Amino acid sequence: MSKPSEFLCTERCIQHIEDAHLPLYALRLVHACHYFVDQTPGLSMQNMALHQDRHYTVRCQTLLEVTGTPEANDFDMIREGVEELQGCKIFNYLDLHESGRKLTFHFANRYPDDAVRKKNDKFAFVDVDQVRTLRKPEQIQFYTRSAMVLRSDYPKFVLPWKQSRDGAWLKVKKRWLTAARQVGLRLGVDCVLIPQINVETDEVSQVQVKLVPKVSPWSPGKLFPRDGQGVALVINGKSETLSRPELRARRNWRRADQA
Prior knowledge:
- By secondary structure, the chain is of the alpha+beta class.
- Helix content is 39%, strand content 22%.
- The chain has helices at 11-20, 24-39, 45-50, 60-67, 76-85, 110-115, 128-131, 137-149, 163-166, 169-187, 244-249; strands at residues 6-10, 56-59, 91-96, 102-107, 123-127, 156-158, 189-197, 204-213, 232-235, 238-241.
- The relative contact order is 0.12.
């Protein structure tokens, strides 16, 4: 069962949001609109997918209560979020009324259809109370991916980071480690971040994240790689990068912090 502050978000919708590479306010606004459709009686993503000409109008204050900064009557989130979302493929209609107090929107064609859960779909129960208190886009993205895999047998995912778009891993690593620390504390998990090295370029091509709950599901030899460089741990909100000897010593550990 989900909490009143949660809505079901499929992996396809999470992928749409990641592909749009949105700033903080735009991310919060997308999640607020999705939550509004999910939670409002008489509205649904399925109906939105069927009726392309039917737009939904919502008071901006309602959206701010969902994903706005707590205790801040900050309409900048709406105004800037609308500006940042212009031209992206999340909405096909998004209009802030002249008064600045109401927003009319319709998600783009693929988004509402992909929001409807189908058999064997991966999904997350996204908690808007988490979204509204996370302060960086990387933190929200790390949270949504973590929420999607946390209950799986071996919770892991690939960071939504692309070198061609976001820059080299060493330039952005600090931001993602901060995200892992923040989310790990909130969800009660430790994290192992494992860079994958491209053998042709010797550069990091992607980063795998393994989540370690307090009761670890990981078996010996499955959590830590046999070898590698730049493997980072996030334990109880603190991070460190392992040397190769330290990594090899942990080869059969089932937890991030002890054998």
